């Protein structure tokens, strides 16, 4: 159920994001989902890849600060209120959402979001109980 | 451990009598052999050593500045003809023309005695194998330690600087027990050991004799921890002949001056008035034995204190504190005096901060809208903080708040990627003052 997400520390300077993604390309790692958030002088790149361990090794070899975090990839049908339903389930179970980002899939009528919560295992449990689709790592990597 | 115990533990009264006698002789010597001093001393009415009745009469001798030495570059202040000179050294010349060090054979002998003393005080014996990782060449550090250690009877490896992998290989293969290096290079090597494939037990290192740039207590702790060694600090400069001016004993409570060869004073850098013992100010040094290039009351620009209390080690020679800053390194930011060493102490020595960032840092001073601001750049190494922004921001805030309480100044703290700030093998240049370059 849990997906391994890479968090990479990046300084805000021209070309840095390009360099990091080039390292991933060189290591023959495919990016499945990506999100960058930044403050005025640094950012954290969050990225889901098909081969997280290889990606971490390649990035560390290039002197980058990287960590692995468990997140959930949740499938949401393309209808009104579907996303809020998922968030409500988490809220009612006392689970805090740290951040969310969406990514594109090839399935019609389905949207996928990456959710980082403070209790990832518990979140997977309550969402499954409530019939929410959670992607396995394998399914996501092979998308 | 002593190298010349009779001199190093001499009664203060005897030491001061010896200093007075040597000072008088030095005044005569300079007056008669160096045109610059002939003129300066003459103008001050000190036309012979007899005018100096007590040690405190030294205050009537005019000070010598770095500019004086520079104005007489390279050989204008020599007291001996070149045929008596056997060696020339020079500083790196980071702030202009290099400063030359010029030695007679007696100067070299005295120099290596003084260095042998500081190495013995640091605990080095003839049993030790010492690797000198200072750059060899014109720089006084490498050859100064080299001959001093040989005089002490230690085994010397003249490794010079650079090629760090090979440095570590020699440390392991030759069973090296002592390392001579700059503190920043020692940190660099110790980081390599920590991250390298060989365990710490592959190294037999016991002593680190670090010098040529400032070493804070926190940097020292880090080197000692990474390397599992005992670090001592020593002090010297090309103008005074290089290392051997002062050095720490095993109790590490100040650097013992080689007071029979160098007479120290502390003055107020603005008024030039002498400070009372124990007060901080600029260190001024008179050489008592140098023949080739003697200096009277040389202004070192280093800020420190002198402690005349007897030391547990038995040495009677005065101890100077670690240099707190340079009169010309001192940054004045929004009217606040800031020494880079204060910032370093915060970064390397604060719980909850120093384990999350690397030991290297850079200070950038800018002026915007007529207001100075100081940026402190540090390298983030703790990967566990990456999950949440607020943890990175909390780290930034913790550094900011601690700096604020130590400096009384607002700073901008910037987190940089690991190993992106410049590493220095020689003197670290960590301050970038852009105030006169930007609008």
Question: How does this model look, in words?
Answer:
The complex is a heterodimer of chains A (143) and B (439). Chain A has 2 domains: 3-69, VC0802-like; 72-141, 2-Layer Sandwich (VC0802-like). Chain A is 33% helix and 38% strand. Chain A has helices spanning 16-26, 52-61, 82-92, 120-129, 137-141, and strands at residues 3-11, 31-38, 42-49, 66-77, 97-103, 110-117, 133-134. With 439 residues, chain B is an alpha/beta fold. Chain B has helices spanning 5-8, 12-33, 35-43, 66-71, 105-121, 140-152, 164-173, 183-195, 217-227, 340-349, 389-407, and strands at 85-90, 100-104, 129-132, 155-157, 178-181, 207-210, 230-237, 242-248, 255-257, 262-267, 281-287, 298-304, 306-307, 319-320, 325-326, 331-333, 336-338, 357-368, 371-380, 411-416, 431-433. In chain B, the strands form 5 sheets. Chain B has a 9-stranded mixed sheet with strand order 4-3-5-6-7-8-9-14-13, with helices on both faces. A 4-stranded antiparallel sheet of chain B has the order 10-11-12-15. Classes of the chains: A alpha+beta (143), B alpha/beta (439). Chains A and B meet through strand 1 and strand 4 of A and helix 11 and strand 20 of B. Chain A: This is ACT domain-containing protein.
Descriptors for this entry?
heterodimer, A: alpha+beta, VC0802-like, 2 domains, 5 helices, 38% strand, globular, B: 439 residues, alpha/beta
């Amino acid at each position: 159920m849990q997906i391994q997400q890479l968090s990479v520390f990046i300084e805000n300077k021209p070309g840095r994001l390009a360099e990091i993604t080039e390292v991933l390309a060189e290591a023959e790692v495919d990016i499945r989902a990506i999100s960058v958030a930044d403050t005025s002088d640094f950012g954290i790149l969050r990225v889901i890849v098909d081969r997280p361990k290889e990606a971490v090794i390649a990035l560390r070899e290039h002197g980058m600060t990287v960590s692995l975090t468990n997140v959930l990839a949740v499938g949401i049908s393309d209808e009104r209120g579907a996303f809020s339903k998922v968030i409500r389930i988490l809220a009612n179970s006392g689970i805090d959402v740290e951040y969310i980002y969406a990514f594109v899939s090839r399935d019609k009528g389905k949207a996928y979001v990456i959710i980082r919560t403070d209790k990832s295992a518990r979140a997977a449990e309550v969402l499954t109980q409530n019939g929410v689709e959670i992607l396995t790592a394998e399914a996501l990597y092979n998308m | 451990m002593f190298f010349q115990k009779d001199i190093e533990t001499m009664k203060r009264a005897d030491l001061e009598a010896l200093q007075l006698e040597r000072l008088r002789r030095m005044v005569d010597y300079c007056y008669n052999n160096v045109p610059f001093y002939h003129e300066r001393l003459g103008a001050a009415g000190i036309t012979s050593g007899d005018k100096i009745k007590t040690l405190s009469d030294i205050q009537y001798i005019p000070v010598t500045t770095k500019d004086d030495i520079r104005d007489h570059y390279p050989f204008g202040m020599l007291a001996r003809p070149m045929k008596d000179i056997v060696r020339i050294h020079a500083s790196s010349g980071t702030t202009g023309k290099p400063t030359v060090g010029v030695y007679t054979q007696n100067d070299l002998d005295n120099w290596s005695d003084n260095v042998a003393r500081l190495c013995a005080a640091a605990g080095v014996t003839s049993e030790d194998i010492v690797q000198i990782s200072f750059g060899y060449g014109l720089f006084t550090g490498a050859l100064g330690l080299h001959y001093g250690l040989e005089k002490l009877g230690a085994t010397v490896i003249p490794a010079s600087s650079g090629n760090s992998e090979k440095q570590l290989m020699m440390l392991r293969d030759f069973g090296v027990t002592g390392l001579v290096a700059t503190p920043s290079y020692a940190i660099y090597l110790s980081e390599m050991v920590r991250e390298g494939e060989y365990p710490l037990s592959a190294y037999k290192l016991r002593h680190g004799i670090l010098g040529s740039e400032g070493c804070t207590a926190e940097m020292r702790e880090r080197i000692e921890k990474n390397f599992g060694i005992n670090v001592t600090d020593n002090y010297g400069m090309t103008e005074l002949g290089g290392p051997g001016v002062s050095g720490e004993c095993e109790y590490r409570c100040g650097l013992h001056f080689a007071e029979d060869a160098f007479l120290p004073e502390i003055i107020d850098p603005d008024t030039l008035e002498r400070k009372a013992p124990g007060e901080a100010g600029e260190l001024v040094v008179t050489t008592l034995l140098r023949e080739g290039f003697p200096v009277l009351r040389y202004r070192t620009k280093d800020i420190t204190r002198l402690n005349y209390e007897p030391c547990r080690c038995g040495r009677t020679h005065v101890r100077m504190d670690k240099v707190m800053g340079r009169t010309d390194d001192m940054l004045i930011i929004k009217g606040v005096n800031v020494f880079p060493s204060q910032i370093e102490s915060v970064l390397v020595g604060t719980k909850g901060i120093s384990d999350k960032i690397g030991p290297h840092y850079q200070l950038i001073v800018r002026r915007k809208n007529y207001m100075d601001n100081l940026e402190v750049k540090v390298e983030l190494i703790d990967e566990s903080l990456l999950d949440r922004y607020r943890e990175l921001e909390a780290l930034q805030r913790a550094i900011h708040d601690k700096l604020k309480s130590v400096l009384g100044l607002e700073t901008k703290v910037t987190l940089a990627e690991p190993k992106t700030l410049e590493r220095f093998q020689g003197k670290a240049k960590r301050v970038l003052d852009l105030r006169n370059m930007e609008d």
